Amino acid sequence: MFKKLTTVSLAVAALACGGQAMAANYVGGNILASKYDEDRGGSADLVSLYGRLGTEFSENFSGELRLGTGIDDDNIGRTKIEQDLFYGAYVRGGIPLGDVFFPYAVLGVTHTKIKYSGPFNSYTNSGSDVSFGLGTDVHLNANTDLNIEYMSYYDKNDVSIDGFAVGVTYRF
């Protein structure tokens, strides 16, 4: 299912851009401060790093892949919560504001893997969900952007994960 949604998302973005030439490819890295919330009342503050690889279909649309892992965990009671791994495919659409700002909306699919460690056992749970958010790129020079973004990555099975990320993007 993840592969089908990824393919459909990227195809829709490519069709929406018509025959416009590809502007650039890019790579980036972000640090993510996320909130893991359980519907039954517990929450944990997690920190992750992720890399981004994308291509601009036009000045308004891009598609990207992300891969990340947790670097800081938290506890809910006596259970340690860790962001073990996450990856996804996303389409970004926005409107450039002058030469400096590119505010955008992002939509895609994220697969996440969370590790739980208690005093007597540990286990891992994983799942995929539709992800969405808002962000902006601030152009620092011709090839480098500061990226700021808020995303809802996962909201399923009584668990939600959302967060704020800051990073740098390099266009080539």
TrEMBL record:
PROSITE patterns xref list? PROKAR_LIPOPROTEIN
| Endpoints of the signal sequence | 1-23
Outer membrane protein beta-barrel domain boundaries: 10-172
Which keywords appear in this protein's UniProt record, sorted alphabetically?
A: Signal
What is the protein name for this chain? Outer membrane protein beta-barrel domain-containing protein
Q: Which organism is it from?
A: Oceanisphaera avium
